[in-house]
Design goal:
Blueprint: H1 2-36, E1 39-48, E2 53-65, E3 69-71, H2 73-83, H3 86-101, E4 109-113, H4 116-120, H5 124-135, E5 142-146, H6 149-153, H7 155-167, E6 171-177, H8 183-189, E7 194-197, H9 199-204, H10 211-224, E8 228-232, H11 237-246, E9 250-252, H12 265-273
Parallel strand pairs: 2-4, 4-5, 5-6, 6-7, 7-8, 8-9
Antiparallel strand pairs: 1-2, 1-9, 2-3
The structure holds ligand C2E and calcium ion (CA) (3 copies).
One calcium ion binds at residues 58, 113, 145, 175.
Protein name: EAL domain-containing protein
Domain EAL: 23-273
């Protein structure tokens, strides 16, 4: 009844308050962090099964919070998106990553994650062009990773933006493939260069019946659409062997290296590719 409903509302109120409070503090800290550039970009190697060498790195954002230590991007990126802070933050990551990549051997590319919110902002193509111009990184060495949610929001505008990016020589990857719902039709209608097979599938490889078949199908689908495939979250030799057998092009995961700070990138390259 009514009294009951009111009672339960009162019961949850303090908890809601606490959560809202925590959230406000995080919002304030996030704005503050952006103005002080308290973020850092980490890099995780991407390994080519064709050449058996590292072929690039994915840039992954880190926030070292003064009280809480490292906060996961999974936690703060949605907030940055809501506050509109993701646009300046995303542009900062892009510049950092492009600049860092100019110091790597020429064949190595850098992959940067782009949020759906950045993608719908008119400034993305300009930001990419500027980042390339300022750093001198050739467009072909930059790859942007986007998730399906971008395509759902505004398919028409997205197609136009993807074509503008490709005109700069930049490659585009569909991230977290298999986690959304309309992946198949999207793959056909948008000019992606690469599919990243979500780590949830890789985790189930060699464990859950049917997963091998799905992964094989995705790799085949990519190949028939002229796209390369990267498997993420590779942690075991068994997963690697399976992916190799299925003809996956690239792999990424803790088996090769965790994401590392900029200071350790050269050592990772040396370890896998030699001098
Ligand atoms: P993602 O793009 O799917 O990135 C892969 C995530 O898997 C990263 O988590 C990476 O550290 C983690 N990972 C890599 N190898 C393994 C493995 O072998 N096992 C396991 N369990 N995990 C592995 P991270 O760095 O915490 O990033 C989480 C998500 O935050 C990313 O998922 C991406 O969606 C988002 N993100 C990170 N950096 C940025 C950024 O600069 N901009 C935007 N818009 N999003 C970002
Ligand atoms: Ca990614
Ligand atoms: Ca992913
Ligand atoms: Ca993910």
């Amino acid at each position: 009844g009514k009294a009951e409903a009111r009672g339960s509302f009162r019961f949850f109120e303090p908890e809601m308050d606490a959560r809202l409070q925590a959230r406000r503090v995080l919002e304030r800290d996030l704005r503050d962090a952006l103005s002080r550039e308290a973020f850092e970009v980490y890099y995780q190697p991407i390994y080519s099964l064709d050449t058996d060498r590292i072929c690039g790195f994915e840039a992954l954002l880190r926030w070292n919070h003064p009280q809480r230590g490292f906060i996961s991007p999974a936690e703060f990126i949605p907030i940055a998106e809501e506050l509109g802070l993701i646009v300046p933050l995303g542009e900062w990551v892009l510049r950092q990553a492009c600049e860092e990549a100019t110091r790597w051997p020429d064949g190595l590319k850098v992959a940067v994650n782009v949020s759906a919110v950045q993608f719908t902002s008119a400034s993305l193509v300009t930001a990419v062009r500027e980042a390339l111009r300022w750093t001198g990184l050739p467009g072909r060495r930059l790859e942007l990773e986007i998730t399906e949610s971008v395509l759902v929001a505004n398919p028409g505008a997205t197609t136009a933006i993807l074509h503008s990016l490709k005109a700069l020589g930049v490659r585009v990857a569909m991230d977290d493939f298999g986690t959304g719902y309309s992946s198949l039709s999207y793959l056909r209608s948008f000019p992606f260069d690469k599919i990243k097979i979500d780590q949830s599938f890789v985790r189930d490889l060699c464990i859950k019946d049917g997963t091998d078949f799905i992964v094989r199908a995705v790799i085949g689908l990519g190949a028939s659409l002229g796209m390369t495939t990267t498997a993420e979250g590779v942690e075991t030799e068994a997963q690697l062997a399976q992916l190799r057998a299925e003809g996956c092009d690239e792999v990424q995961g803790y088996l090769f290296s965790r994401p590392v700070p900029v200071s350790e990138v050269a050592a990772v390259i040396l370890r896998w590719n030699g001098a």
